[in-house]
Specification:
heterodimer, A: alpha+beta, Butyryl-CoA Dehydrogenase, subunit A, domain 3, two-stranded antiparallel sheet, 10 helices, 10 strands, 14% strand, B: alpha+beta, Butyryl-Coa Dehydrogenase, subunit A, domain 1, Butyryl-CoA Dehydrogenase, subunit A, domain 2, 3 domains, 4-stranded antiparallel sheet, 46% helix, globular
Chain lengths: 319, 390
């Protein structure tokens, strides 16, 4: 029996998270005209980082499914990769820093091992760094990172390039949880960009009609809706397949990564197109989603690695 | 959000597995359509019925098992696993996937008691009489007349693109019963007996070579008024119920069976070019197809979890139809010169041709996009004036 629904508790949790983010992290904050805010503390105080954490570690003891649902909202609201990093770090961090992670006094930055070096995101203010490195994610003190700021592709995130001393590894886990959370954020981006394009297509008028009345525009939006639906369905399937441990869902996570990455990128591209001229301006939010989709996509290894991985998995037998 | 196996489901799955092991037909389903294919499908349907598997979800009183839709999916899964004939492709598709469900939802007790068991026993193949030469995507433009004459309706006109009409005993027939009525008003849904005098079926050869795709001519065919479903003049409403099934749950068998078809292609390429295919273009397309097949199945479960709201089934239908065509086109590229033999690798080249219908039938992909755009996303209809409402 496959149940991809959300239960009442999950629905309430998501509603709470959405209300929190509407107040502390509206996407408009990222616009050139917007007011920069750092919602991390408010997110932590709401209880975000304890949701999927075992009770023994001071968490709520809920599961991967709840973490996935929050990651979906993180994507929709373009939260810093530090939110995913701190979620991962809470599972891996030594007891002495855990409490500070849960309250928001401390946070982790997310980093990607590229093979040559490490790209780190929003390192400033972080005390830990969670490195996505091939098949695993490992944690180190942020002091182990030496790097310099680069002109990040995604300007909503401060990017730096450098190295992390591997000898300072504190802990590690297989990358399944990280991939599921990233895929969920990508699915959130696919949904958000669909909503953004649809909202504009309903109000923008040309030739005496809302442009969404024209099939040429409507069908772009419908395809965006289908991609968002497929991505959300598959990240839910992946979360459901994880049950107690994320590695149990390897195949479904692989399918979710590919489906959500493609959905997020294509939908973000289409959202720019549906907006026309305004879509090419920095004030329109569509480009933030596009850039974040690329960033998150690279954390999954990019499309090629996602394809290779899903072919390497055994297709699931029916139960 | 979880995957679990309640004991009843486990027992059900095992019972299905055991039965399929000894009952799945050994021979392949004849590929070329026609009577051999029909007889194969009828025999398999009869075998399922006799084995107690007439239908998983239909009510017990009509020969089903009265189980939830999720159990129906288990049945599709196990059939795919056992290599049973595909539920997404057989002459009972119309009867099982939309005629039956529409009768269950909208027909009288007498109609249900008569027709549903006939379908499950394999004694009544159905076809659909909706499209006409001048009414394809624009269904409300239909002109075939149904004149009420005493206790009868007298049908005059023409239907087209009527799959299985050459084999069908009954038809879902939508006619205009109110003279001079416009668009969706004045229509009536009738169960048409294809043996009634005045009905002529002419096969149309389709691009895959089959003759089961037909046009149907009605020259004063008389049907008793008792064949009306949902009342005179309510045809549009009944037709919309039917289309919700056709564009919704009717996609489920193919949605479940698709993964097995992708795996078949992966096995084939692994056999024919071991180790050399993963980093090629076909490798990339197979990876995408594997992920898409997983997502398609997940979409079915999301749709069910969300209670199948109006219009949402079109997400599944559209994704399924386009994926089906992508996969069969991929098979053509994998086969290379063998693709020029229609029967190669179990008939993939023929299937490639047949699959062109998936983005046309049950509403073209363009109509599905209109449905998603307007009914799900709330975009205005074409021609909506500026500042006006959708």
């Amino acid at each position: 029996m496959i149940d991809l629904g959300v239960n009442d508790d999950q629905r309430q949790m998501v509603e709470g998270a959405v209300a929190l983010l509407a107040e502390h992290a509206p996407v408009a904050r990222l616009r050139p005209s917007g007011k920069p805010v750092d919602p991390h503390r408010a997110i932590a105080e709401w209880g975000w980082f304890g949701v999927g954490l075992p009770e023994a570690r001071g968490g709520l003891g809920l599961g991967v499914a709840e973490e996935m649902l929050l990651a979906f909202e993180a994507g929709r609201h373009l939260l810093s990769p530090s939110v995913a990093a701190t979620t991962l770090a809470a599972h891996l961090a030594p007891e002495d820093v855990l409490a500070a992670l849960l309250t928001g006094e401390a946070r982790a930055a997310l980093a990607l091992a590229t093979g040559r070096d490490v790209l780190a995101f929003d390192v400033e203010g972080a005390s830990l760094i969670a490195v996505v490195d091939g098949e695993e994610v490992w944690l180190a003190q942020v002091s182990a990172f030496r790097g310099t700021t680069v002109s990040g592709f995604d300007e909503a995130v401060y990017a730096s390039r450098g190295t992390v001393d591997r000898a300072s590894r504190l802990a590690s886990e297989p990358a399944f949880r990280a991939r599921l959370l990233i895929a969920a954020s990508l699915a959130g981006i696919a949904r958000a960009t669909c909503d953004l394009a649809v909202a504009y297509a309903k109000v923008r008028e040309q030739f005496g009609q809302p442009i969404g009345a024209f099939q040429a525009v409507k069908h772009i939006c419908a395809d965006m809706g289908v991609r968002a639906y497929a991505a959300e369905a598959q990240v839910r399937m992946a979360a459901a397949a994880c049950a107690d441990t994320p590695d149990a869902g390897a195949f479904q996570i692989g399918a979710a990564a590919l489906t959500a990455l493609r959905a997020a990128r294509t939908n973000a591209e289409d959202a720019i197109q549906v907006h026309g001229g305004i879509g090419f301006t920095a004030e329109c939010e569509a480009h933030f989603y596009l850039k974040r989709a690329h960033l998150l996509g690279q954390l999954l290894g990019g499309t090629d690695a996602c394809r290779t991985r899903i072919l390497a998995e055994r297709a699931p037998e029916v139960a | 959000m979880r995957i679990f196996q309640p004991p009843e489901e486990k027992a059900f799955r095992q019972e299905v597995r055991d039965w399929l092991e000894t009952n799945v037909p050994r021979g392949r389903r004849p590929q070329e359509g026609g009577e051999a294919q029909r007889d194969f499908d009828v025999a398999w349907r009869r075998r399922q019925f006799d084995g107690g598997w007439g239908h998983i979800a239909w009510p017990k009183e009509y020969g089903g098992r009265g189980l939830p839709i999720t159990r129906q999916l288990v049945w599709y899964e196990e059939c795919a696993r056992a290599g049973a004939p595909e539920h997404g492709h057989n002459v009972f598709f119309v009867a099982l996937q939309h005629a039956g469900p529409t009768l269950i939802a909208r027909a009288s007790d007498e109609q249900k008691a008569h027709h549903l068991p006939l379908i499950l026993k394999g004694e009544a193949i159905w076809c659909q009489g909706f499209s006409e030469p001048g009414a394809g995507s624009d269904l409300a433009a239909i002109r075939t007349r149904g004149e009420v004459d005493g206790d009868d309706i007298v049908i005059t006109g023409q239907k087209i693109w009527t799959s299985y009409a050459v084999h069908a005993r009954y038809q879902e027939l939508l006619v205009r019963t109110e003279p001079g009525s416009q668009r969706h008003r004045g229509l009536t849904f009738v169960i048409c007996d294809m043996k009634a005098p005045g009905i002529e079926v002419r096969p149309i050869r389709n691009i895959a070579g089959g003759n089961d795709f037909c046009e149907v001519f009605y020259d004063g065919a008389r049907l008793p008024l008792s064949t009306v479903v949902g009342g005179l003049g309510n045809g549009w409403d009944v037709a919309m119920s039917l289309l919700a099934f056709e564009r919704g749950a009717a996609s489920f068998p193919v949605a479940i069976e698709t993964a097995a078809r992708v795996e078949e292609l992966i096995e084939y390429v692994e056999e024919t070019r071991p180790g050399r295919w993963r980093d090629t273009e076909v490798g990339a397309r197979l990876a995408e197809a594997r992920a898409d097949a997983a997502a398609l199945k997940a979409m079915v479960h999301l749709l069910i979890a969300r209670g199948s709201p109006a219009g949402e089934g079109s997400h599944v239908r559209l994704f399924m139809a386009e994926l089906t065509k992508r996969i069969s086109a991929l098979a053509m590229d994998l086969l290379g010169p063998d693709a020029l033999d229609r029967n190669a690798l179990g008939g993939w080249p023929r299937r490639y041709l047949e699959d062109f219908k998936t983005t046309i039938a049950a509403g073209t992909s363009q109509i599905q996009r209109n449905i998603i755009g307007e009914r799900v996303l709330g975009l205005p209809k074409e021609g909506a004036r500026a500042g006006g409402k959708a």
